[in-house]
From TrEMBL:
Record bears the keyword ATP-binding: no
Taxonomic source organism: Mesobacterium hydrothermale
Signal peptide span: none
Identification of the protein by name: Cytochrome oxidase subunit II copper A binding domain-containing protein
Domain Cytochrome oxidase subunit II copper A binding, chain residue ranges per copy: 1-175
């Protein structure tokens, strides 16, 4: 049995196929030009032991180590744990315009972190540490929310970045 495709239909198939190929080419060229690539920080962690302090000083995400600290390289590090249905700590104070490294791990299920009107948008996969370096430029309270459905109380999972002028920001132990 012969299969017949009308001449006009063939033409539209070629046009649509060409548009799809051109779209792929534009996307690849744009990604190469702007040096865009998927996150490459693949660092595993045992989610079941995330909050437990072991050894001197405890693990990175133990209760004593979460929050804002100055890293060995001098950059601010913010460590947050995402667990149903909250972020810990829920409130984080940061200086305006200073680049910080956010490291976040999920205790239980897939979560996300999104700060509206900024470039801070991460997926938090259990068993891995998600990391991004960014800065918040607007002074004031900036909410961050979970953008991956994580269960019935997902809508109540949020935190707050309190951004203060850089000259008013101090960490405990750094002095006034």
């Amino acid at each position: 049995m012969a299969f017949h495709v009308d001449k006009l239909e063939k033409r539209w198939i070629y046009i649509i196929g060409g548009l799809v190929v051109m779209t792929w080419i534009v996307m690849v060229m744009g990604a190469a030009r702007d040096n865009l690539h998927p996150p490459s920080n693949v660092e595993g962690i045992d989610s079941a032991r995330l909050h437990l302090a072991e050894g001197v000083g405890g693990d990175e995400f133990s209760e004593d180590n979460i929050g804002v600290r100055r890293g060995d390289d001098g950059m601010l590090e913010v460590r947050i744990v995402a667990a149903r249905y909250g972020f810990y700590p829920q409130r984080v104070t940061l200086p305006q315009g200073e680049t910080f490294r956010l490291r976040i791990a999920a205790f239980d299920v897939l979560h996300g972190v999104y700060v509206p009107q900024t470039n801070l948008n991460l997926m938090v996969v259990p068993g891995y540490i998600s990391e991004i370096e960014t800065a918040l430029m607007e002074v004031g309270e900036q909410p961050y929310v979970c953008h991956e459905f994580c269960g019935p109380a997902h809508a109540h999972m949020f935190g707050l970045f309190n951004v203060v002028p850089a000259d008013e920001f101090t960490l405990p132990g750094e002095g006034a």
